[in-house]
Amino acid sequence: MGRRAKNKQDVPLPLEQERATGKVTKVLHDRLRHEKIQTRKRTANVGKTAPGKRAAETKAATSKRKRDEEAAKPKPKPKAKKTKVVEPESEEEEEEEEEEAESVVLLEGAPDDGWDNAPMASDSEDDGASMSEFDSDDDDDERQEPIALLQSDDEDSDSETGGMESYDEFDTADEDGEPVTFRDMEKRSRLLEAQQKAEEELAELEQLAAEEAAEGERALFTLPSAEQIEAEKEAPLDLQQVQLRIQEVIRVLNNFADLRDPERSREDYMTQLKRDMCFYYGYNEYLMDKMLQIFPVSEAVEFFEANETARPVTIRTNTLKTRRRDLAQALINRGVNLDPIGKWTKVGLTIFDSPVPVGATPEYMAGHYMIQAASSFLPVMALGPQENEKVLDMSAAPGGKTTYCSAMMKNTGLVVANDANKEREKALVANIHRLGISNTLVCNYDGREFPRVMGGFDRVLLDSPCSGTGVISKDASVKINKSQDDFTMLTHLQKELILSAIDSVNADSPTGGFLVYSTCSVTVDENEAIVNYALGKRPNVKLVDTGLDFGRPGFTSFRGHTFNSSLSLTRRFYPHAHNMDGFFVAKLQKTSNKITTTDDQVIVPTGSGARIKHKKRRN
Ligand SMILES: C[S@@+](CC[C@H](N)C(=O)[O-])C[C@H]1O[C@@H](n2cnc3c(N)ncnc32)[C@H](O)[C@@H]1O
Hints:
Layout: H1 15-20, H2 26-45, H3 51-72, H4 91-108, H5 125-142, H6 146-161, E1 172-173, E2 179-180, H7 182-217, H8 226-234, H9 239-254, H10 256-259, H11 266-281, H12 285-294, H13 297-307, E3 313-317, H14 324-333, E4 337-340, E5 348-353, H15 362-365, E6 369-371, H16 378-383, E7 390-393, H17 400-408, E8 414-418, H18 422-434, E9 440-443, E10 459-463, H19 478-481, H20 484-503, E11 514-519, H21 528-537, E12 541-544, E13 552-553, E14 557-558, E15 561-562, E16 571-573, H22 575-578, E17 583-590, E18 595-596, E19 601-606, E20 609-614
Parallel strand pairs: 7-8, 7-10, 8-9, 10-11
Antiparallel strand pairs: 1-2, 3-5, 3-6, 4-5, 11-17, 12-17, 13-16, 14-15, 16-17, 18-19, 19-20
Helix pairs in contact: 2-5, 3-7, 4-5, 6-7, 9-11, 20-21
Bound molecules: S-adenosylmethionine.
């Protein structure tokens, strides 16, 4: 179904934050390097005009280079007086030292990298190597005018030594019969390097000019005719051809006025694009349409691509049993290659590779960590359960979030872990035991039975059942097995669950009064639309900031529907943007336990449940 996941792992962190950590891992280095190349390309493309103009620019660059080269040629020097000779250090050595110094400064001055400042064995030489590679890239940029720099360096050193020809005499002469001295040799070799660099830059410019000329000459892309589409049903194109057509159609759509076939409408292009993307990525038309409603086409492709790649394996330290640095050290000793997930969590680790299954290490068995997706940390962080509180996890199995709540509460207070699926609760119970959790009560109700079962919670987490469109990289069957009916049923359930969850919160809680609603889906009808519905039905709740400092704001309008403007306080996370599962997090605060709803009901939640009184209608 679609293309196979490549199982490539990466750090689940927005690039801006990765940079902010100051640590340069191999992965980050590659990504930065890639970005740099892209930036260079973009810079080169800025002001791209006609191929002719590019050619003129290239010509101008060539003659400038020639002028510079001419100016840089070593000139015959007057004989200098003999003087005491101090052999200068080679430029390479100086550069190396500078690079080292820069690396050290960068590492020392690096902001908190998420390790609580603990030196870790995983901060290995590789990182240093990556760092210096990265630095040398920078050097390239700084040496935009190598020849000019070379000249001024030479002048400086000459004046410092008062001309020191005598110490470096050689028995050689150049083509013009001039004696070649050691200093000349050095200078000539630097000149050669500079020339080579200039030639490389010229070649790059010429390559760009050639690409642009080819682009200009490329034939107008034409959509396949109805007959061709029919023929493709019998003899489908191969994936590569389809991918090329996807790119072409997107190119046309992005510059429709100039590149369109006047006989074809935007709709025609979109229809072909959807057909090709369904085939290439293996989605059904219904879901493809849904995704294209959320993302602009180019971003949709990024999303589909990200879904073909497994997200990084991440684990959460069980702080009831260990500290992250100790856990990391123990795993490193077993040959596990890991790093902190990012600045935003003090308990998460990304596992890059491991000689042993991470679900079978002695540390795992001893309950020192939970294998848990990075995105799954977020709703619990937003909920922020406190010690000694009473917390409800309304749909808890298999328990990643329940056990995180317990750890945050330091095993105090009470966590009610409920799930409607008894089978799934086996894993929940096993995790609770393994992680040494003692403040949790497991129950098996339909969440909609709350708060009749129990109410008055300081905080409630509703990690709702959903379509799973955010976790397609884990479960590719979502691509084809979701229909309109599924979404209708799911959203109905979600609406009922969120009202039950709100009614289970005690607005008068001295420490809490909060609800977090989350899903691992990216569709608007399972997220913003559900929260917007709840705001309408329960005027005694309001959206508050999630406290998560990344993620995109939720939609405040969508396809003609306008939501409450506070929906911008919700957060969306995407695989292609945040390198974690697609996720949605909303945090609500309950302001009162009493409400009069628009449909004539007064709801009075009590400590153990809610009584719903229907007002008698007066005729
Ligand atoms: C997204 S999963 C929860 C994952 C869990 N919070 C965790 O972090 O491990 C959704 C859960 O909702 C449960 N569920 C489905 N319908 C439910 C209902 N009506 N009431 C309560 N739980 C329900 C499912 O059994 C499933 O375990």
